[in-house]
Specification:
alpha/beta; DNA polymerase, domain 1; seven-stranded mixed beta sheet; two-stranded antiparallel sheet
Protein backbone atom coordinates (compact mmCIF):
# COMPACT_ATOMS: atom_id res chain seq x y z
CA UNK A 1 0.00 0.00 0.00
CA UNK A 2 1.14 3.56 -0.70
CA UNK A 3 1.59 5.44 2.56
CA UNK A 4 2.57 8.78 1.07
CA UNK A 5 0.26 11.77 0.85
CA UNK A 6 -2.93 10.96 -1.00
CA UNK A 7 -4.16 13.70 -3.34
CA UNK A 8 -7.88 13.48 -3.88
CA UNK A 9 -9.83 15.08 -6.73
CA UNK A 10 -10.73 18.05 -4.53
CA UNK A 11 -7.20 18.53 -3.21
CA UNK A 12 -8.01 16.99 0.18
CA UNK A 13 -4.54 15.85 1.26
CA UNK A 14 -3.94 13.30 3.97
CA UNK A 15 -1.03 11.25 5.27
CA UNK A 16 -2.55 7.95 6.44
CA UNK A 17 -1.13 6.60 9.69
CA UNK A 18 -0.80 2.83 10.20
CA UNK A 19 -2.34 2.64 6.75
CA UNK A 20 -1.59 -0.91 5.62
CA UNK A 21 -1.89 -2.25 9.17
CA UNK A 22 -5.37 -0.83 9.67
CA UNK A 23 -6.75 -2.04 6.34
CA UNK A 24 -5.15 -5.47 6.80
CA UNK A 25 -6.67 -5.73 10.29
CA UNK A 26 -10.18 -5.82 8.81
CA UNK A 27 -9.45 -8.93 6.71
CA UNK A 28 -11.67 -7.55 3.97
CA UNK A 29 -13.96 -10.06 2.24
CA UNK A 30 -14.78 -9.57 -1.45
CA UNK A 31 -18.53 -9.52 -0.77
CA UNK A 32 -18.41 -7.89 2.66
CA UNK A 33 -19.97 -4.70 3.99
CA UNK A 34 -17.59 -2.18 5.56
CA UNK A 35 -17.78 1.20 7.25
CA UNK A 36 -15.07 3.88 7.17
CA UNK A 37 -16.24 6.04 10.06
CA UNK A 38 -13.83 8.92 9.41
CA UNK A 39 -13.37 8.66 5.67
CA UNK A 40 -11.77 12.12 5.15
CA UNK A 41 -9.50 12.01 2.13
CA UNK A 42 -10.67 8.52 1.23
CA UNK A 43 -7.33 6.74 1.48
CA UNK A 44 -8.53 3.93 3.73
CA UNK A 45 -11.79 3.73 1.81
CA UNK A 46 -9.98 3.35 -1.51
CA UNK A 47 -7.80 0.58 -0.09
CA UNK A 48 -10.87 -1.28 1.18
CA UNK A 49 -12.57 -0.88 -2.20
CA UNK A 50 -9.56 -2.43 -3.93
CA UNK A 51 -10.32 -5.62 -2.00
CA UNK A 52 -14.06 -5.59 -2.62
CA UNK A 53 -15.85 -7.03 -5.65
CA UNK A 54 -19.57 -7.06 -5.05
CA UNK A 55 -19.35 -5.78 -1.48
CA UNK A 56 -20.39 -2.43 -0.08
CA UNK A 57 -18.63 0.49 1.62
CA UNK A 58 -20.17 3.25 3.73
CA UNK A 59 -18.01 6.38 4.02
CA UNK A 60 -18.89 8.63 6.95
CA UNK A 61 -17.50 12.04 7.84
CA UNK A 62 -18.83 15.15 9.55
CA UNK A 63 -16.49 17.54 7.75
CA UNK A 64 -18.30 19.07 4.73
CA UNK A 65 -14.96 19.45 2.92
CA UNK A 66 -14.39 15.72 3.34
CA UNK A 67 -17.87 14.95 2.05
CA UNK A 68 -17.22 17.02 -1.09
CA UNK A 69 -13.98 15.14 -1.57
CA UNK A 70 -15.49 11.69 -1.03
CA UNK A 71 -18.42 12.41 -3.32
CA UNK A 72 -16.06 13.46 -6.11
CA UNK A 73 -13.57 10.67 -5.52
CA UNK A 74 -16.06 7.81 -5.52
CA UNK A 75 -18.60 9.26 -7.93
CA UNK A 76 -20.12 6.53 -10.09
CA UNK A 77 -19.07 3.66 -7.81
CA UNK A 78 -22.34 2.01 -6.83
CA UNK A 79 -20.63 0.09 -4.05
CA UNK A 80 -20.08 3.32 -2.09
CA UNK A 81 -22.50 5.32 0.06
CA UNK A 82 -21.21 8.69 1.33
CA UNK A 83 -22.87 9.94 4.52
CA UNK A 84 -22.45 13.40 6.06
CA UNK A 85 -22.78 12.65 9.77
CA UNK A 86 -20.89 11.91 12.98
CA UNK A 87 -19.89 8.25 13.30
CA UNK A 88 -21.20 8.40 16.86
CA UNK A 89 -24.55 7.87 15.10
CA UNK A 90 -23.41 4.70 13.31
CA UNK A 91 -26.45 2.65 14.35
CA UNK A 92 -28.91 5.18 12.95
CA UNK A 93 -26.81 5.69 9.83
CA UNK A 94 -26.80 1.99 9.00
CA UNK A 95 -30.48 1.63 9.82
CA UNK A 96 -31.23 4.49 7.43
CA UNK A 97 -29.35 2.65 4.69
CA UNK A 98 -31.23 -0.57 5.37
CA UNK A 99 -28.13 -2.33 6.68
CA UNK A 100 -28.59 -4.65 9.67
CA UNK A 101 -24.96 -5.69 10.24
CA UNK A 102 -21.50 -5.26 8.71
CA UNK A 103 -18.26 -7.20 8.33
CA UNK A 104 -15.91 -4.47 9.44
CA UNK A 105 -15.67 -0.97 10.88
CA UNK A 106 -12.65 1.35 10.77
CA UNK A 107 -12.28 4.63 12.66
CA UNK A 108 -9.23 6.90 12.48
CA UNK A 109 -9.71 9.36 15.34
CA UNK A 110 -6.93 11.74 14.32
CA UNK A 111 -7.24 15.18 12.81
CA UNK A 112 -6.51 14.92 9.10
CA UNK A 113 -3.41 16.47 7.56
CA UNK A 114 -5.76 18.53 5.40
CA UNK A 115 -7.40 20.05 8.46
CA UNK A 116 -4.05 20.72 10.14
CA UNK A 117 -2.40 22.18 7.05
CA UNK A 118 -5.31 24.34 5.90
CA UNK A 119 -4.75 27.52 7.90
CA UNK A 120 -8.35 28.69 7.49
CA UNK A 121 -9.57 25.66 9.46
CA UNK A 122 -7.78 26.98 12.55
CA UNK A 123 -6.39 23.70 13.91
CA UNK A 124 -2.66 24.41 13.74
CA UNK A 125 -0.47 26.34 16.16
CA UNK A 126 2.15 26.63 13.39
CA UNK A 127 0.06 28.52 10.83
CA UNK A 128 -1.82 31.81 11.17
CA UNK A 129 -5.55 31.39 10.77
CA UNK A 130 -8.89 32.08 12.42
CA UNK A 131 -9.25 30.28 15.74
CA UNK A 132 -11.86 27.75 14.65
CA UNK A 133 -11.09 23.99 15.03
CA UNK A 134 -14.65 22.86 14.16
CA UNK A 135 -14.56 19.60 12.20
CA UNK A 136 -18.19 20.04 11.19
CA UNK A 137 -17.82 23.80 10.63
CA UNK A 138 -20.87 24.24 12.83
CA UNK A 139 -21.48 25.11 16.46
CA UNK A 140 -19.17 26.61 19.06
CA UNK A 141 -15.69 27.46 17.78
CA UNK A 142 -12.33 27.56 19.55
CA UNK A 143 -12.57 31.35 19.47
CA UNK A 144 -15.85 31.17 21.38
CA UNK A 145 -14.24 28.89 23.95
CA UNK A 146 -11.16 30.97 24.74
CA UNK A 147 -13.06 34.26 24.81
CA UNK A 148 -16.20 33.24 26.71
CA UNK A 149 -15.50 30.45 29.20
CA UNK A 150 -14.50 31.42 32.72
CA UNK A 151 -11.13 30.73 34.30
CA UNK A 152 -12.19 27.58 36.13
CA UNK A 153 -13.77 25.98 33.06
CA UNK A 154 -10.82 26.82 30.80
CA UNK A 155 -8.39 25.41 33.33
CA UNK A 156 -10.46 22.24 33.66
CA UNK A 157 -10.61 21.70 29.88
CA UNK A 158 -6.89 22.26 29.34
CA UNK A 159 -5.99 20.00 32.26
CA UNK A 160 -8.43 17.17 31.50
CA UNK A 161 -8.27 17.04 27.71
CA UNK A 162 -4.71 18.27 27.24
CA UNK A 163 -3.19 16.60 30.30
CA UNK A 164 -1.36 19.89 30.71
CA UNK A 165 0.28 20.45 34.10
CA UNK A 166 0.44 24.21 33.52
CA UNK A 167 -3.29 24.43 32.78
CA UNK A 168 -4.03 27.00 35.48
CA UNK A 169 -1.24 29.31 34.36
CA UNK A 170 -2.32 29.03 30.73
CA UNK A 171 -5.98 29.68 31.56
CA UNK A 172 -4.97 32.71 33.62
CA UNK A 173 -2.94 34.06 30.70
CA UNK A 174 -5.85 33.56 28.29
CA UNK A 175 -8.30 35.38 30.57
CA UNK A 176 -5.86 38.24 31.09
CA UNK A 177 -5.12 38.58 27.36
CA UNK A 178 -8.78 38.69 26.31
CA UNK A 179 -9.50 41.55 28.71
CA UNK A 180 -7.60 43.92 26.45
CA UNK A 181 -8.28 42.27 23.09
CA UNK A 182 -10.42 39.44 21.76
CA UNK A 183 -8.30 36.40 20.89
CA UNK A 184 -9.02 35.74 17.22
CA UNK A 185 -6.20 33.76 15.60
CA UNK A 186 -4.27 30.55 16.13
CA UNK A 187 -0.91 32.25 16.49
CA UNK A 188 -2.31 34.72 19.02
CA UNK A 189 -3.36 31.82 21.22
CA UNK A 190 -0.10 29.95 20.62
CA UNK A 191 1.91 32.99 21.74
CA UNK A 192 -0.22 33.40 24.87
CA UNK A 193 0.37 29.77 25.81
CA UNK A 194 4.09 29.95 25.04
CA UNK A 195 4.54 32.95 27.29
CA UNK A 196 2.51 31.36 30.09
CA UNK A 197 4.66 28.26 30.61
CA UNK A 198 8.18 28.07 32.08
CA UNK A 199 11.07 28.26 29.63
CA UNK A 200 12.13 24.68 30.33
CA UNK A 201 8.69 23.45 29.25
CA UNK A 202 9.21 24.92 25.78
CA UNK A 203 12.18 22.73 24.84
CA UNK A 204 10.85 19.27 24.04
CA UNK A 205 7.79 20.13 21.94
CA UNK A 206 5.68 23.14 21.07
CA UNK A 207 4.26 24.47 24.37
CA UNK A 208 0.83 25.04 22.80
CA UNK A 209 0.40 21.46 21.59
CA UNK A 210 -1.55 20.19 24.60
CA UNK A 211 -3.71 23.30 24.89
CA UNK A 212 -4.70 23.15 21.22
CA UNK A 213 -5.47 19.44 21.61
CA UNK A 214 -7.65 20.14 24.64
CA UNK A 215 -9.64 22.93 23.01
CA UNK A 216 -10.10 20.91 19.82
CA UNK A 217 -11.39 17.92 21.77
CA UNK A 218 -13.82 20.15 23.67
CA UNK A 219 -15.05 22.00 20.56
CA UNK A 220 -15.72 18.76 18.67
CA UNK A 221 -16.93 16.66 21.60
CA UNK A 222 -14.41 14.01 20.64
CA UNK A 223 -14.54 12.18 23.97
CA UNK A 224 -18.20 12.79 24.75
CA UNK A 225 -19.73 9.39 24.24
CA UNK A 226 -16.67 7.83 22.55
CA UNK A 227 -17.00 4.66 24.62
CA UNK A 228 -20.65 4.31 23.61
CA UNK A 229 -19.70 4.90 19.98
CA UNK A 230 -17.10 2.11 20.08
CA UNK A 231 -19.68 -0.19 21.69
CA UNK A 232 -22.13 0.67 18.91
CA UNK A 233 -19.49 -0.10 16.26
CA UNK A 234 -19.05 -3.52 17.82
CA UNK A 235 -22.80 -4.15 18.07
CA UNK A 236 -23.14 -3.42 14.34
CA UNK A 237 -20.76 -6.26 13.47
CA UNK A 238 -21.71 -9.66 12.19
CA UNK A 239 -20.29 -12.64 14.07
CA UNK A 240 -16.65 -12.79 12.96
CA UNK A 241 -16.62 -9.12 11.97
CA UNK A 242 -13.88 -6.75 13.11
CA UNK A 243 -13.68 -3.21 14.40
CA UNK A 244 -10.38 -1.32 14.24
CA UNK A 245 -9.73 2.07 15.84
CA UNK A 246 -6.68 4.30 15.45
CA UNK A 247 -6.15 6.66 18.39
CA UNK A 248 -3.71 9.53 18.80
CA UNK A 249 -3.63 10.35 22.50
CA UNK A 250 -3.93 8.53 25.79
CA UNK A 251 -7.51 9.61 26.56
CA UNK A 252 -8.86 8.15 23.31
CA UNK A 253 -6.76 5.03 23.63
CA UNK A 254 -7.89 4.46 27.21
CA UNK A 255 -11.55 4.67 26.16
CA UNK A 256 -11.12 2.19 23.31
CA UNK A 257 -9.01 -0.17 25.42
CA UNK A 258 -11.62 -0.22 28.20
CA UNK A 259 -14.45 -1.07 25.82
CA UNK A 260 -12.49 -3.85 24.13
CA UNK A 261 -11.39 -5.20 27.51
CA UNK A 262 -14.96 -5.35 28.81
CA UNK A 263 -16.14 -7.14 25.66
CA UNK A 264 -13.40 -9.75 25.93
CA UNK A 265 -14.13 -10.70 29.54
CA UNK A 266 -15.57 -14.12 30.17
CA UNK A 267 -16.36 -15.82 33.44
CA UNK A 268 -16.71 -13.46 36.40
CA UNK A 269 -17.10 -16.12 39.08
CA UNK A 270 -14.75 -16.02 42.10
CA UNK A 271 -11.52 -17.90 41.48
CA UNK A 272 -12.29 -20.41 44.22
CA UNK A 273 -15.46 -21.62 42.46
CA UNK A 274 -14.87 -25.16 41.08
CA UNK A 275 -17.12 -24.52 38.05
CA UNK A 276 -18.52 -21.48 36.31
CA UNK A 277 -22.04 -20.56 37.41
CA UNK A 278 -22.29 -17.06 35.86
CA UNK A 279 -22.37 -18.34 32.27
CA UNK A 280 -20.57 -15.26 30.94
CA UNK A 281 -18.56 -15.82 27.79
CA UNK A 282 -16.20 -13.45 25.94
CA UNK A 283 -18.00 -11.55 23.19
CA UNK A 284 -14.81 -10.37 21.52
CA UNK A 285 -11.29 -11.48 20.74
CA UNK A 286 -8.92 -8.55 21.15
CA UNK A 287 -5.70 -8.44 19.15
CA UNK A 288 -2.40 -6.98 20.28
CA UNK A 289 -2.25 -3.22 19.73
CA UNK A 290 -0.04 -1.89 16.93
CA UNK A 291 2.16 1.21 16.97
CA UNK A 292 3.88 2.91 13.99
CA UNK A 293 7.31 1.71 12.98
CA UNK A 294 10.37 3.90 13.42
CA UNK A 295 10.43 4.32 9.65
CA UNK A 296 6.85 5.64 9.61
CA UNK A 297 7.41 8.12 12.44
CA UNK A 298 10.53 9.42 10.70
CA UNK A 299 8.55 10.03 7.52
CA UNK A 300 5.50 11.37 9.36
CA UNK A 301 6.20 12.75 12.87
CA UNK A 302 2.43 13.15 13.43
CA UNK A 303 2.22 9.35 13.59
CA UNK A 304 4.38 9.00 16.69
CA UNK A 305 1.50 8.81 19.20
CA UNK A 306 -0.82 6.62 17.11
CA UNK A 307 -2.07 3.25 18.25
CA UNK A 308 -4.24 0.72 16.40
CA UNK A 309 -6.57 -1.57 18.37
CA UNK A 310 -8.70 -4.31 16.80
CA UNK A 311 -11.44 -6.56 18.18
CA UNK A 312 -13.29 -9.40 16.49
CA UNK A 313 -16.86 -10.29 17.42
CA UNK A 314 -17.34 -13.82 18.75
CA UNK A 315 -20.92 -13.64 20.04
Amino acid sequence: MDTDITLSPSGFNHIPVLFAESVDSLEVKEDGVYVDCTAGGGSHSAAILERLKNGRLICIDRDPDAIDNLTARFSGDKRVSVVHDNFFNIKNILQGLGITSVDGVLADLGVSSYQLDTAQRGFSFHNEGPLDMRMSRQGVSAQDVVNNLDLAELSKIISAYGEEKFARQIANAIVKARQSKKIETTLELADIVRNAVPAKARRDSHPARRTFQAIRIYVNGELDGLENAVKDMFECLKIGGRVSVITFHSLEDKAVKQVFSSLSKGCTCPKNFPVCVCGNKPRAMVFKSVSPSDNETQKNPRARSARLRTAQRLL
